[in-house]
Write a structure and sequence with these properties.
The protein is an alpha/beta fold. It has one domain (about 5-110): 3-Layer(aba) Sandwich (Glutaredoxin), CATH 3.40.30. The chain is about 35% helix and about 25% strand. It has four helices and five strands. It has a five-stranded mixed beta sheet with strand order 1-3-2-4-5, with helices on both faces. The chain is globular and about 30 Å long.
Length: about 110
């Protein structure tokens, strides 16, 4: 799985624009939370490139970059949770899931 790191707030506008050409997934991950670690591990183990070739995955370390996490919640109108994924299409969040509801098969269904 090839994660693209979100490290700067200005990337959110780039991600929105990119989502008009291909779906984008944002994972908000807490590096100190066991639930977050489990959700990340399950997702990475289940990930199949052939099922998600058009989906670009982004990773946010929300402990280091909480202001960006807050901006994501505000920008896409999705209440913050951790761990959390959002799928962005055409500049809008079309799907979100958190905790153990983060499942590869559900992500694929949204594509």
């Amino acid at each position: 799985m090839n994660w693209h790191n979100i490290t700067e707030e200005h990337q959110l506008e780039e991600i929105k624009q990119e989502s008009y050409n291909q779906p984008v997934m944002i994972l908000k991950h807490s590096t100190t939370c066991s639930i977050s670690a489990t959700a990340l591990s399950r997702l990475e183990r289940a990930w199949k490139e052939e099922s998600t070739k058009d989906l670009k995955p982004y990773y946010l370390d929300l402990l280091k970059l909480r202001p960006i996490s807050n901006k994501i919640a505000q920008e896409f109108g999705v209440e913050h949770e951790s761990p959390q994924i959002l799928i962005i299409k055409n500049g809008q969040s079309v799907y979100d899931a958190s905790h153990f509801d983060i499942r590869f098969d559900e992500i694929v269904n949204q594509l």
